[in-house]
Amino acid sequence: MSKALDGLRVVDFSDTLAGQFCARLLADFGAEITLIEPPEGSPIRRMPPFSLADPALSLRFWHLNTGKKSVVIDRTSAGGQETLEAMLCGADIALLPEDLDPEKVMHLNPACIAVCISAFGCDGPLKEWRGPEIVLQALSGMMNNNGAYGREPLYGVGERASFAAGQAAYIGIMTALHERHSSGLGQIVAIDAAETAAAMCFPYVMRHIYNGSIHTRQDQTIPAGQVKCRDGWVCIWIYNHRWRAVCTALDLLPLETDPRFSDPQVRRANWDTLYEIIQDKVANWPAEDLVDRLQKAQVIAAKAYRPSEQIHNRHLNGRHYWEKVEDRLILGPPFRLSATPRVVRSGAPALGALKIDPAVWEAKSRQPRQSSRSSQLPPLDGLRVIEITTAWAGPMAGRVLAYFGAQSIHVESPNRVNSWRLNKERPNPINFPDGEPGSRPFDRSFLFNSQNVNKLSCILNLKTEEGRSTLRRLVAVADILICNFRPGTLAKLGLDYESLTAIKPDIIVAELPAFGGSGPMSGYAALGPTMEMATGMSAMMAYPGGQPENSGPSYLDPIGGFNAAAAILTALHDRDRTGRGQYVEVPQVEAAMQFIGAELLLAAESGVDPLPDGNRVANMSPHDAFPARGEDQWVVIAAENQVQWQALCSAIGHPGLATDPRFSDLAARKRHETELTAILSEWTAVRNKHAVARLLQYAGVAAAPVANAADVASSTYLAHRGFFTELDHPDAGRHRYPGLPIHLSRTPGSQRRPAPQFGGDNRYVLEDILALPALEIARVSAGDVMATVPFPDG
To answer: Which stretches does the entry tag as region Disordered (predicted)?
Structure first.
């Protein structure tokens, strides 16, 4: 069976999690990957966790490098440099370390796609800063939302900013490959992990830009809570319009009319009391039974699976998720392609197992052909996308494609409006410019307007045959269709994959079911926080002895959007070569599990779960958030090694701490971490968080302010990156909108037009895209097929 990326030669010269994850995704779908390592091996080989069965094997390295081959090159020798240059001359894609100038690679091989991934980039105000995960999450605005008000905010779990940066790099590569298919030219793809982390956390920043409000952890903005069942925690999402369903499913019908809970606003004021009642009811229930009961009542809920439970997870096993290669466990694919599925050809390579003949690589040297394509065109120009999507993940996927030039048509029914325009809850003033919904609130919501930049809006009543017929006509002239509703939605519309290929044989159809299209939980509805519970992430993120936590706001939604964009672009590359379309399934929970792959593998092997300990980690101390001057203001400090620890002691004016027996080495600091936290907190508490971070970073210590929405909106670093673009929306006014952290040197993406008004492009779609006769346009426009305002009962 052919693979989507057959024939691509990749030099993985990266020495970071992000680079090696990106290259592993390329290997998963058929590219030939050669990992270049120094004589002592990649630093990832020395990263925990390590296998219990083979203590020399880093599970992090195993997870990131299956399917690759390894060659050792000593860059300090003339022979090593010659071999490296020969490989770069013969590569389609080169993932580079920070100290290798991509322009030199482009000079050697103009057809190559040269990829640079770093924490803060090679220029800008933070280029010298140190950026471990806790620093990246602090600066992104994400960390400010995590954990309990009055306690230190939580940075999250694992190395998620690095994995997201690797994902962004993969998207950039696949976009550049599509453009190269017509131009013959390569280009540089640049990714900052810090900018990527910020791109995952836009909602509260956009809210601040729209109306000046600053979200805090005191705000109860999501209708969710947790209860502890007999065998684990469950998150229950109680929308107002599902209140009766909740009471019925839990056998608590008297609560429906209880004066403490019957009115939504009063219920919110008595939220803790409500959850105490639910807790008493379900304490002895099995968690999965509770979730199943609620989901059958169309109430969103999820169990917070512990990592050790995932190897036995009935749903994952029902989908044959877990695989083995060379008799060792690996995670399943991040996405599934019908014509070119993932095939892992080998385990992670032994150091230097491959021997390179430079002459062979030079013989494969890529030469750019004469380009027939204008360099002024965006890389995905000419592609047409239909989005039947809502909220964040699906629209985010379409937004990525539109950012790089595809024409994306956002299709909504007038009776089923995108929930980020208008949901069934009472409009919340915080969603609108200056807190005012206005006469067209569905066109003024910062949520919808941020994720639908560059798109067209076509409103079709898909309950009518005319509406479905018009959609089928759109399919006939489209390249890609995206849907992120529950599995079966397309089939109910008569638009299952087989029906769509009868209309357009080479169409790429992508669906984003939270739990996949098969398995016991396939019909479950989900949101970012409940998906985070289902992955195993939330159970790893908590205060000592506390309940599982989520990363706000809805971290896994944009990750799902990125995974979907990556999957679609992979299928597109295959179509560029073969002319065939295919069906793409992006099970968002399974895709996100890649981000904690090493932890899941260790838990599967050992049966032991990581013990949540706030922000503290085994390999650094201090590694935490410390109070700063002002209400709920914090600064993170992470001494990555002994040198940074000594520098920290000098920077805070206590050089003697470095030799204090309680803190003199890492083991001692871990034993006396509570005392160390108290000492550092006393020093930070009277100081400005930004000043502390600048002082420590200047001294060589990893540190950052825990940024709130206003901090992110005014970031000089993001401004230098051109992250925000001012756009003038006819209903919402002029505001800045966040871009994407994927920078292509020759054919960059851009934000060219604001999000569309509801039905604002109906006539353009009928006239210019479908070229319908005037009488037919009049008939469709005048009936109940199209609309420019939602139906009252929608």
So the answer is: 735-758
